[in-house]
Amino acid sequence: MANIVAVASIHPNEVKGGAPIFIAPDLQKLEEIAFLLEKILDASAHDLKNGTIILVDHH
User: InterPro entries given for it (predicted)?
Assistant: First the structure.
């Protein structure tokens, strides 16, 4: 079972939930944030192709 540990998005009004949410001003910054979170959280980044990336712990 996988757990969503964070969400990064360029759409502040479209993401909600129990995981920490990181808002980026553009797609380039979104990728930078997701890359850093991936390393910090030891998680996998999954791009939903809609301006949102989820960070998932597959352990």
Answer: YpzH (IPR054055)
- Whether 10 and 23 have beta carbons less than 8 Å apart is answered as yes
Q: Which two tokens stand for residue 5?
A: 């540990």
- Per the CB < 8 A criterion, the answer to whether 41 and 2 are in contact is no
* Residues of the chain predicted below pLDDT 50: none
Name the strand (E) or helix (H) holding 14: none
Q: What is the pTM of this model?
A: 0.93
7 — phi, psi (to 5°)? -135, 135
Q: What pLDDT score does 1 carry?
A: 87
If you ran DSSP here, which 8-state letter would residue 42 be given? Answer: T
- The angle subtended at Cα 7 by Cα 34 and Cα 48, nearest 5°, is 80
